[in-house]
C-alpha cells in the first residue's frame, strides 16, 4: 500500500498545482474583463449625465 501511495503522490501534487494555476488564471482574466465593463459603464453614465 505504501508503494502505491508513494508512486501516486508526485503526480497528484503536480495535478493539483496545475489545476490551481488554471483556476487563478481564469479568475484573473475574468476579473479584468469585469473591471473593464464596470469602468466603461461608469464612463458612459458620466458622459450621459454631463450631456443633460
UniProtKB/TrEMBL annotation:
Entry's transmembrane regions: 6-26
Keyword vocabulary terms for this entry: Membrane, Transmembrane, Transmembrane helix
Location of the region described as Disordered in the Swiss-Prot/TrEMBL record: 29-52
Annotated Basic and acidic residues bias: 29-45
Protein name: Uncharacterized protein
Species name: Sphaerisporangium rhizosphaerae
